[in-house]
Design goal:
single chain, Rossmann fold, 5 helices, about 15% strand, about 45% helix, about 130 residues, alpha/beta
Amino acid sequence: MLDVEIEGLHKVRDSLDGHFTNAITLILAALEGGHKIVVTGVGKNIPIGQKIAATLTSTGSPAVFLHPSDAMHGELGILADGDAVLALSYSGESEEMMNLMPALKRAACFHHRTDLFFHQLPRAAL
């Protein structure tokens, strides 16, 4: 049983590239600067994003989950200067996420924020 899990971890490790390393570096920089991670996503990524935010918070890294629909109706104010945004999307082109991107760019902290987009499809708009 453990060998199966170890093999799975090796496959994950081998699939990670420089983008993953860059993402971790940016997240660490935000946290070291006293900022938080704002996780967002839609559909099946909602519970995943909520779990990521909860796990980060429970391990001492400030994080919150922001639903894209809520962001469009006033919750975008949760973003602060220096925060990192971790956006989760399978296609990288869902309507909610595509609507959220211009709002993130208009946010006051846009120039001092890090946006990280994780999606499955290689030619996604995000």
